[in-house]
């Protein structure tokens, strides 16, 4: 089985590649541009595996992508490459439009050209998974869950660009018959997560006794999904999901942001006790513009149709995550020192 993965040096992408290479035994081609969030160190465990290869390329480079299709001849395509940080999209939306929309268009067209030229049996077996986010649905009230039929209502440049890419994927399936499936996931967490995101930022700041920034009152709610559970879900979806359908992937672990931070602090108090509790480091900061109040995924379709179930609950997953960061400074220390040191992102200048 040959699987082409885009964005495989990112957080979710690297978890997927490690799973496919080590657990599934698939032949994997990882295409990644290696922006600030792409890190080949995340693939150190499988970098020399005979069933793994890497191509540094931009998905917007149609020629490079088309050549990769023709040379590797994938059975499946799993498209994860994207600009993904909401804060960065607030002050630098252009990169999100280029990669998430134009890059997805490039991937769809390259896949269509390749698929149309396949022999009948290979053409019937080919599948493409477009990996997206629950942020396309906008903000929930106190009740309810995002379903696959929930209307799109994106709030940030990031979520708007992902919503556009989802619509492109749907249109290419409906117009051209390209065998595409879409997945929309809740907030991922776990090992190898770039330190600008909430959980790794809080862990590392707590370790270094730096302020722990919490947006607004910390009341925003997210549904947390352990990244390895997500990787398993994606492999199930690309193999067995119904073509033209969407599948929501969520961990059924809703938490307020402040509760996530408090839980990390409690674990840090156990494993790195100090004179004062880590919660004393919590610092409430000005909220993010357009900050959605609540996300929560209904994963019933995925669970009932494909038999997927998250193996980690939040308590087990967050402890594994904290332990991993404490034990793997070799991975995150170079990022903290040379790429992102923990500064606030996405702050608009006052006019």
Automatic annotation (TrEMBL):
Which keywords label this protein? Lyase, NAD
**Which Enzyme Commission number(s) are listed?**
4.2.1.46
Q: Which Pfam families match?
A: GDP_Man_Dehyd
Q: Coiled-coil stretches, from where to where?
A: none
Query: What SUPFAM superfamilies does the database record attribute to this sequence?
Result: NAD(P)-binding Rossmann-fold domains (SSF51735)
On whether Zinc is a keyword of this UniProt record, the answer is no
GO BP, sorted A to Z: nucleotide-sugar metabolic process
The record lists the catalysed reaction(s) as:
dTDP-alpha-D-glucose = dTDP-4-dehydro-6-deoxy-alpha-D-glucose + H2O
- Tell me the cofactors it needs: NAD(+)
Single GO MF annotation: dTDP-glucose 4,6-dehydratase activity
Stored InterPro entries: dTDP_Gluc_deHydtase (IPR005888), NAD(P)-bd_dom (IPR016040), NAD(P)-bd_dom_sf (IPR036291)
Where the record annotates domain NAD(P)-binding, the positions are: 4-321
Q: Which residues form the signal peptide?
A: none
| UniProt-listed NCBIfam families | dTDP_gluc_dehyt (TIGR01181)
Family listed: Belongs to the NAD(P)-dependent epimerase/dehydratase family. dTDP-glucose dehydratase subfamily.
**Know the name of this protein?**
dTDP-glucose 4,6-dehydratase
Tell me what organism the protein belongs to. Answer: Rhizobium anhuiense
